[in-house]
Amino acid sequence: MAKTPNIAIIPSAGFTHLFPIIEFSKKLLQFHPDFHITCIIPILESLPSSSKSYLQSLPPNIHTVFLPPVHKHDMPQGVHRGAQVQLTITLSLPLIHHQLKSLNDSTTSSLVALITDCFAHEALDFAGEFDALSFMYLPYASMIFSLYFCNSTTKLEKEEKEEEGEEYYSPDSIKIPACVPVRGRGLTESLYDPLVLKQFFERAEKFRLIDGILLNTFLELEKETISGIYEEIKGNGIKTQLYPVGPITPAGSSTEENGSGSDCLRWLDQQEPKSVLYVSFGSGGTLSQAQMDELAIGLEQSGKKFLWVARPPSDDVSAAYLATMKDNPLDFLPEGFLERTKGQGLVVPMWAPQVPILRHGSVGGFLSHCGWNSSLESIVHGVPLLAWPLFAEQKMNAAFLTDVLKVALWPQSGGTVGREEIAKVVRMLMEGEEGKEARKRMEELRDAASNALEEEGGSSRRTLSEFAMNLRARA
Ligand code: UDP
Question: Which EC main class describes this enzyme (predicted)?
Answer without folding.
Answer: transferase
